[in-house]
Design goal:
It is a single chain. This protein has 104 residues and is an alpha+beta fold. The chain has one domain: 3-Layer(aba) Sandwich (Glutaredoxin), CATH 3.40.30.10. The chain is 50% helix and 16% strand. It contains 5 helices and 4 strands. A 4-stranded mixed beta sheet has the order 2-1-3-4, with helices on both faces. α2 links the parallel β1 and β2. The radius of gyration is 13 Å and the shape is globular. This is Glutaredoxin.
């Protein structure tokens, strides 16, 4: 495992809810990242860790390989890849995301 993959793995496994996004939760830098933050908040998640991929090109590319997923944002819960903003939205609308996030 490369250094960047190791760093990503530690972030994913070290935080219950981890969102790799463009910008921050307070200042999302793209609409999809903003929607991902809104969905988490709508699910009642008060504490989640974010990583701004715009500040680290290695992680920005490495996260795509890590999950075999080409786009950002990417949500991980309990060390497992959930998906991007479209999948988060679908899961939220079906109630599946709230159930996943409630398992604490």
């Amino acid at each position: 495992m490369s250094d960047v993959q190791q760093r990503i793995d530690e972030l994913v496994k070290g935080n219950r809810v981890m969102l790799f996004m463009k910008g921050t939760a307070q200042f999302p830098m793209c609409g999809f990242s903003g929607r991902a933050v809104q969905v988490l908040k709508a699910c009642g998640v008060e504490e989640f860790k974010t990583f701004n991929v715009l500040e680290d090109e290695e992680v920005r590319q490495g996260i795509k390989d890590y999950a075999q997923w080409p786009t950002i944002p990417q949500l991980y819960v309990d060390g497992e890849f959930v998906g991007g903003s479209d999948i988060m939205m679908e899961m939220y609308q079906s109630g599946e995301l709230q159930q996943l996030l409630a398992k604490a």
